[in-house]
Amino acid sequence: MAFDPLPPSFVGRALGCIRGGRAVFAGLDFAVAPGDALVLLGPNGSGKSSLLRVMAGLLRPTVGAVLWGETPAAEDAEAHAARTHYVGHHDAVKPVLSVAENLRFWARLHEPHLPTATRAVDGALDAFGLAHLRDVPGKMLSAGQKRRTNLARLLAAPSPLWLLDEPTTALDKASIKVLERVMADHRAAGGMVVLSTHQDVDLPGCRELHLDRFTPGGDEWEDEE
Amino acid sequence: MSRFLEVIRRDLRLALRQGSDSIMVVTFFVLTVVLFPFGIGPESGVLERVAAGVLWVTALLASLLSLDRLFQADYEDGSLELLVLTPTPLEVVVVAKICAHWLTTGLPLLVAAPVLAVLLHMNADGFVTLLLTMLVGTPILSLIGGIGAALVLGARRGGVLLSLLILPLYVPVLIFGVGAIDAAVGARDATPHLLILSGLLAAALPLGPWATAAALRQALE
């Protein structure tokens, strides 16, 4: 699962975001090179989710731009979607579809070639310890199993850029270890990971971005607290 | 193209396993039409006169019933975000979802309509035209309805708001649908009405998904 020999890096320039009339962050720059991991840190409401949604293209930044190499990601939304996996707060698991059916649907949207997609889905189920649950309908899954089904999308269709919004929520220790290994393999193959977390996730050589430093007027806000 | 079919297949499978929506829509259609003979009396002359209007108005309301679930379930469980982030234009995904919606709600209405027409003593000359108007008209209902369903995402009491938004837009379909059937029953030429209805479909086919996709993007911001 190797990507282009020298894929371009993923860059944000002078990003600013206003949500509900409040400036969440401003003047934010980031850069993720192939094989890199970026961890977003900050208290609740500091804009971690907003930044990830901006990176995914779900949210337009109020100012600034997200670039893939030299080209703005917003210029070709489909190409950006093809190279991105976004894991948000919701698990997008349909209650009446089985684990394998849920996963195959998302895999087929990224990888229309059926045999490739089927093989990748089987591999992803094995990697996240879901093989014995493959025919279990989504409504029978626990929160942690749903989360693992959602995370299995990462492997069910290869994409270089992973955007993970608190991916460890509801996961047990063993599953967090699995996720850490999957992310390490992904980075070794030249992939990029951006994740936000409140828990300790072991990402060797990752860089940290403290979002509270980009909160406009953050100091006064802290004084009020 | 395979992504388009994949979305249709998934929505049909969901509809088949959950089952409730299609059955609910057809049952509502049948029950409401059956109420009319009780309400306005069984004289065949009166029923025959109102048959086309009753069938079309009831079909509009029945199709409205199923609309608020069109995007709501995907919106709530996060699937919609991922559908927006697929390497396909969102408009294509929307057309696929609307096709699936028509197959699960519009098509059953089309099948039920002639049976109910018999119940209302509709003149036999109007049956073919009734089917034709339903065939052209019900996809327009799904296409226009998709815009409303996307606009009310995340709103409280979305269902009521949806009917206020969408029912006025359904009026042209109603006018020309009923007009065509009345013309056929009165031994006049129904073609102009059918052509206008087809024109409405031709306009709704690109405009509906385009507006729906824009509303969905807005809902997710």
UniProtKB/TrEMBL annotation, chain A:
Domain ABC transporter: 6-223
Keywords, in A-Z order: ATP-binding, Cytochrome c-type biogenesis, Membrane, Nucleotide-binding, Translocase, Transport
SUPFAM superfamilies: P-loop containing nucleoside triphosphate hydrolases (SSF52540)
Record bears the keyword ATP-binding: yes
Entry-linked InterPro entries: AAA+_ATPase (IPR003593), ABC_transporter-like_ATP-bd (IPR003439), ABC_transptr_haem_export_CcmA (IPR005895), P-loop_NTPase (IPR027417)
SMART domains the UniProt entry points to: AAA (SM00382)
Any GO MF annotation of the entry: ATP binding
GO biological process per UniProt: cytochrome complex assembly
Keyword Membrane: yes
Protein name as annotated: Heme ABC exporter ATP-binding protein CcmA
Automatic annotation (TrEMBL), chain B:
Regions that span the bilayer: 21-40, 46-67, 102-122, 128-153, 160-181, 193-216
GO MF term (any one): heme transmembrane transporter activity
Principal localisation: membrane
Subcellular location: Cell inner membrane
GO cellular component, as recorded: plasma membrane
Gene Ontology biological process: cytochrome c biosynthetic process; cytochrome complex assembly
Keyword Signal on entry: no
Keyword terms: Cell inner membrane, Cell membrane, Cytochrome c-type biogenesis, Membrane, Transmembrane, Transmembrane helix, Transport
Pfam families given in the database record: CcmB
Annotated membrane topology: Multi-pass membrane protein
Biological function: Required for the export of heme to the periplasm for the biogenesis of c-type cytochromes.
Family affiliation: Belongs to the CcmB/CycW/HelB family.
Protein known as: Heme exporter protein B
